[in-house]
Amino acid sequence: MSALDNVIFHALSTRQAEFAVACDEARRFMPEVSSLGAFLEPSARGYESLRGLVAAGETIGLSLAEPYRERPGWSLVVGCAMPQMVYAGDGGLMPGRADGSEMAELGPADVPAMMELTALTKPGPFHPRTHELGTYLGIYVDGRLVAMAGERMKVPGYTEVSAVCTHPEYAGRGYARRLMTEVMRGILERGETPFLHVRGENVRAIEFYERLGFRERVVSWLAVLRRD
Q1: What's the confidence (pLDDT) of residue 92?
Q2: Sign of torsion over alpha carbons 94, 125, 86, 26
Q3: Domains in the chain, please, with CATH?
Q4: Nearest by Cα to 197 from 217, 213, 180
Q5: pLDDT for 135-156, tens place per residue?
Q6: Residue 220's closest CA among 79, 74, 15?
Q7: Residue 213 pLDDT more than 70?
Q8: Do 164 and 199 contact (CB within 8 A), yes or no?
Q9: Cβ within 8 Å of residue 197, ≥6 positions away
Q10: How far apart are alpha carbons 115 and 165 in whole angstroms?
Q11: Nearest 5°: CA angle at 28, between 128 and 224?
Q12: What is the pLDDT of residue 96?
């Protein structure tokens, strides 16, 4: 089994165990870090274990090997195909054009700006402590955070590129490519391989990632569930 199979569970059981809350066969990130969780397998025991980590009315995001099938005690809020893509390039990363703006590493002081940008662009769940999962880089223009990208899940040998987003008013300037390239460079320099997840219907993003050297490894399925 690859570390990229059931990747959320593996991340919370290995390199990111410090951020995990566990109950029997289930794991989840601390709520202030991420809304993602997982179980050892999608069995009755797996879902019962997950119930011990999710309060009534609360939601949690799962990455499944196949589309979600109805389970008692849970309601599907949203579900979609979520291809997992792995970097297969030779490391010769082209950063793209620069317009004079500078990249900066983001930290606790940038959290309000990061929350505002991700709430607008919706690259995926982002919480007040998500930035603690890895390196996050951003571009400010006139004091406003207009683009960012960073690292999220980590398993042995791999680190996920995540939260890639650009304010709509600043799209088309190559910011996403510059930020992703720098994040990927840091991952590769550690001897790890970048990977990412993308919504299956986001053809434009998939084509962009392919140009950067990513290739689809498997199609996983996102299921955001609410505990009844």
Answers
A1: 78
A2: positive
A3: 7-82 (no CATH), 85-218 (3.40.630.30)
A4: 217
A5: 999 999 999 999 999 999 999 9
A6: 79
A7: yes
A8: no
A9: 63, 82, 83, 84, 85, 124, 160, 162, 220
A10: 12
A11: 85
A12: 62
pTM: 0.94
Say how many C-beta atoms besides its own lie within 10 A of residue 120's C-beta. Answer: 11
Cβ atoms of residues 157 and 193 within 8 Å: yes
Residue with tokens 């601390």: 30
pLDDT level of residue 93 (50, 70, 90 thresholds): confident
Q: Sorting pLDDT into bands at 50, 70 and 90, what band is 102?
A: confident
Tokens of 53: 């980590």
Please report, for residues 64, 92, 150, 177, 193, the alpha-carbon distance to residue 51 in angstroms, rounded to integers and kept in the order given: 17, 45, 30, 39, 33
Tokens of 46: 């797996």
Contacts of 147 by beta carbon, 8 Å cutoff, 6+ apart:
117, 138, 139, 165, 166, 167, 170, 175, 176, 179
* pLDDT above 90: residue 206: yes
Hey, is 50 helix, strand or coil? helix
Above 90 in pLDDT, residue 196? yes
The helix or strand, by DSSP H or E, that contains position 195, with its residue range, turns out to be strand 193-197
The percent helix, strand, coil of the chain (3-state, each to 5) is 30, 35, 35
